[in-house]
Predict the 3D structure of the following.
Amino acid sequence: MSKYSEAAGLPTTSHETGVAGTTAPPVPPAPPETVAPPVAPPTPPVYENPLDDMPVATSPEVPPTAADIPPVSDLRWMSKIKLEEIGRTLGIELDRRLSQPKLVEQLKEQIEKTK
């Protein structure tokens, strides 16, 4: 028993006295509840990839001619996408992960081979 409960005149509990108290009667099991129908899991949100809108170079249906290939001096002013398109007309696939000057160098080498 705690000295504070004794001083306050409170009744003692079984854990304070060490004497086991009376046990409560057993609780009957709860009646079975009605089972709710299974709920379908929520559908995940649709992810829209922003890269899907990026332009992709496509190869032309007609074979390239000398007129389709721009002069080598103009290549360094073109975008990577345009360089990739020109590369496809020449029959090579350029990797846009490379820098633009490296793509220009690869195109120059391919143009020299085709001449």
Q: What stands out?
A: The two ends are 105 Å apart (CA to CA). The mean pLDDT is 78.
